[in-house]
Amino acid sequence: xxxxxxxxxxxxxxxxxxxxxxxxxxxxxxxxxxxxxxxxxxxxxxxxxxxxxxxxxxxxxxxxxxxxxxxxxxxxxxxxxxxxxxxxxxxxxxxxxxxxxx
Amino acid sequence: xxxxxxxxxxxxxxxxxxxxxxxxxxxxxxxxxxxxxxxxxxxxxxxxxxxxxxxxxxxxxxxxxxxxxxxxxxxxxxxxxxxxxxxxxxxxxxxxxxxxxxxxxxxxxxxxxxxxxxxxxxxxxxxxxxxxxxxxxxxxxxxxxxxxxxxxxxxxxxxxxxxxxxxxxxxx
Amino acid sequence: xxxxxxxxxxxxxxxxxxxxxxxxxxxxxxxxxxxxxxxxxxxxxxxxxxxxxxxxxxxxxxxxxxxxxxxxxxxxxxxxxxxxxxxxxxxxxxxxxxxxxxxxxxxxxxxxxxxxxxxxxxxxxxxxxxxxxxxxxxxxxxxxxxxxxxxxxxxxxxxxxxxxxxxxxxxxxxxxxxxxxxxxxxxxxxxxxxxxxxxxxxxxxxxxxxxxxxxxxxxxxxxxxxxxxxxxxxxxxxxxxxxxxxxxxxxxxxxxxxxxxxxxxxxxxxxxxxxxxxxxxxxxxxxxxxxxxxxxxxxxxxxxxxxxxxxxxxxxxxxxxxxxxxxxxxxxxxxxxxxxxxxxxxxxxxxxxxxxxxxxxxxxxxxxxxxxxxxxxxxxxxxxxxxxxxxxxxxxxxxxxxxxxxxxxxxxxxxxxxxxxxxxxxxxxxxxxxxxxxxxxxxxxxxxxxxxxxxxxxxxxxxxxxxxxxxxxxxxxxxxxxxxxxxxxxxxxxxxxxxxxxxxxxxxxxxxxxxxxxxxxxxxxxxxxxxxxxxxxxxxxxxxxxxxxxxxxxxxxxxxxxxxxxxxxxxxxxxxxxxxxxxxxxxxxxxxxxxxxxxxxxxxxxxxxxxxxxxxxxxxxxxxxxxxxxxxxxxxxxxxxxxxxxxxxxxxxxxxxxxxxxxxxxxxxxxxxxxxxxxxxxxxxxxxxxxxxxxxxxxxxxxxxxxxxxxxxxxxxxxxxxxxxxxxxxxxxxxxxxxxxxxx
Lengths: 102, 172, 744
Fold this sequence. Notes:
The structure holds three protein chains of three kinds.
Chain A: H1 6-26, H2 30-55, H3 59-89
Helix pairs in contact in A: 1-2, 2-3
Chain B: H1 4-23, H2 27-47, H3 51-76, H4 89-115, H5 130-140, H6 142-163
Helix pairs in contact in B: 1-2, 2-3
Chain C: H1 7-31, H2 33-64, E1 70-80, E2 85-93, H3 95-118, H4 125-144, H5 148-166, H6 180-210, H7 215-228, E3 231-234, E4 237-240, H8 241-259, H9 268-271, H10 277-286, H11 291-298, H12 300-308, H13 319-339, H14 344-365, H15 368-410, H16 416-419, H17 433-436, H18 438-452, H19 458-473, H20 475-500, H21 507-510, H22 517-532, H23 539-548, H24 559-564, E5 570-574, E6 577-581, H25 590-610, H26 628-632, H27 637-714, H28 721-743
Antiparallel strand pairs in C: 1-2, 3-4, 5-6
Helix pairs in contact in C: 1-2, 1-4, 2-3, 2-4, 3-4, 3-10, 3-15, 3-22, 4-5, 5-6, 5-10, 6-8, 8-11, 8-12, 8-13, 10-15, 11-14, 13-14, 13-20, 14-15, 14-19, 14-20, 15-18, 15-19, 15-22, 18-20, 18-22, 19-20, 19-25, 20-25
């Protein structure tokens, strides 16, 4: 029976991060893109907590605490933005938000 | 760090939920998959001896934030995007590059992980109770904590500004 | 407080006068002619008197400080440290400069006061006094400067003032419609340029040889180099110091012949009489024209060294000897020309040239003190004579004016003399004025006798000192000067008789009136000075005083001889080098004095005999016209030579240069054909080829490349957030790959 080491958690974190980033890259629904970002943050959090456990240090968990706080603020602002955009464009298709086109 | 069978089971659930979120055409489904994913990760936190973070994960993430998501999706009626079935050439290239990059990322990480032969550190049994975490937070991170407060305030004001409906007669 | 520090005031007073009259004096005169003239004239006069007071204070300071020369700095004028070239503007207070200051400001003050009366009613009254004050200012710079360059500033400044004042009435024309006054001013200016050219060259040479222009430094270096037998290098050439000194002094002589009206450049001075009479008195008799003598006396060290270097000029003559001969011949020539003049001021002008010749000759013979002595006494009596002649002219004009009104009122009398041009300066129209203008007559008589050298008047002592020196050192010069002295007495006798004796030959002379007090008072003062001026350097007196004060000869004023001794070192060259000699005053030689007095009296008597009752009318020929050769001089030898042989070729050359070279060749050919065409073709090339293809091509090329590049890059900015996210992801993966590569 193999021992669960930190590598397992890191591997899981990487897989979740990749899936999240694929969501950001491939999905066109702004809300799902947003959710993918949340998942990437979560994978990072998982890595932090795993390291905290591995190193026997509480600082990793403190950092996760801050990340969650920032993520909450980000979600609040981001969803408000999406609502505002939807009001003007009647769509949350991220490909239609191309005002930056050069 | 726990039972490998439990870890593998949970990992499969987490990855499956993630893939489900990625592939669902209905945004509500995606959000529910994500909730499952977050809960699973909360269980991982418990196995990693981080009870406070696990509780925050469940209440803030899986609870508050995801409710917010669902609320917005349903408010806007944006379960599905309209008329996005066509996949053009540019989109194919985009997808191919993204997939390739994801593959490279996974491969490189796997390479790193399999190559690492770092010995296990005998983790000292530390106190990870919420009390210890709070003491640590206020002992060493008072200033970032205060800044976080300001950040939340700013976010709150920002949300007010964005969601304020324009009065009639006021353009742009 | 040290009186020396007052020295800058010497220059400040006339400068204030210039500013006052130049800026606001005119307003005063225009507002109220009578009061304004008084303000304008007296302000200028008071400034001149102020300078005189300062000069007296400097004189007393020198007495109190054992005649030590003092340099009073004003500002650093030119300062080039890298070339070690410093020209300070400083006032040199020594016995020589103070002598000149006293003459300039003293005589100048009297003439200022006289001019208030003489210029009365002139519309440009304040302009006249502006120039007058400016002249005093520059003349004081000339005599007070401590370097040759500052001296030259004054030298040019007085030349400018001379030009301005000669052509003061520049709008006056003669019968032929020529602007004679303006022409005379130009002539003076141009002739003086020739001399100034010599001055400039001399200063160049001097700076090259001695690396300084400061009097003391130059003299010390010159003596030192002369003792060492130094050879001066001029690039490829080199010359012994004696030759260089000879060249410098010869060029100084050229400058002096210009300013002091000597052969060959004297021709401007007689014409300069076109200016107002106070100008003739101050500038063209008493002060400015003596600056050439001042220059030679100031540079006495250089001239004495040139004398020691022997006959360098063409191997025939040394500079000081040349100076002496130039002076002597000028004295004689001008004396002869004076016989033939009818204009009362022209006679005096040639007399001035002649007397300046005496001074130059004295300086050339090494009798510097005698030259300065004659300079001072000449300033007294020649200023007196000029002012007297001005008084006569003033009286004649007054008489003519009176006559005009008289005939006009009564409608009788012969009208034809009204139409004939009347010249108030023509002596033939005068005669018998001694009854009409008694004060003028008496002072004029004093001046004429002083000039003729009748003892015990001032002119006798000074002229005799020169003659005695010539008798002892240079017999030829002595003989020439003695003849010139006889001429002097004769033409003064002629002038006296034609002007004041006999019967009036013109109605204007009958109605002539004495001049106002304002004019006669300075005349009386000057007459007093002309009588007692000889006391300044009375031979027996100075010798006796020197003997009496043998123990402290420097302690008190010993006459000019002992006074100037502190500025004019006498020395001679011996085997051991330069030996400084004690100054030995010339003692009056009874034989020389007796002969010259006898000759002068005879000449005066002869003149009165020849003119005893002639000419009877204004149209009568002059008795001397029987002496044909003498009248050849009337055609003005050098003037004729210049007008015939120098001016026409010069004009031709100037015309040729102007029309052929400048206009046809330079403008038409060089400018139009060469420069313009080349420029145009070059410009065409630049515009059509270089600009169109080169500059425009480059600029447009850069523009289109940038545009194309931007067009290409622009396409990467799709505006799709996911594309950007892909870019970010690519960066992240690349970083990871990089870490991986670094690790393994």
